[in-house]
Design brief:
Elements lengths: L3 E3 H8 L3 H9 L6 E3 L2 E5 H17 L3 H12 L2
Antiparallel strand pairs: 1-3, 2-3
Helix pairs in contact: 3-4
């Protein structure tokens, strides 16, 4: 069973805004879980988005390109 990270902690660790996070959710990159009015993300979701952000920031890839690289790397 994966560990879960509270949304605020997730945002701080990835250095993204709540608006950016919602954008990634709307595009299907990650999905949060709501419980008692709080949103949590699995450690798997954290590392997926961390990888996507890494490729976007360091290599200038588009979201789709970065997502494909992460999916390829995690499929191994």
């Amino acid at each position: 069973m994966p560990d879960y990270i509270l949304e605020d902690h997730f945002l701080r660790r990835l250095k993204i805004s709540p608006l950016e996070l919602k954008g990634f959710e709307q595009k299907g990159v990650i999905r949060g879980v709501e419980k008692n009015g709080l949103t949590f993300y699995s450690s798997r979701e954290f590392y997926r988005l961390k990888g996507v952000l890494h490729y976007m920031r360091s290599q200038g890839l588009s979201l789709e390109e970065a997502r494909a690289k992460v999916e390829l790397a995690t499929a191994r």
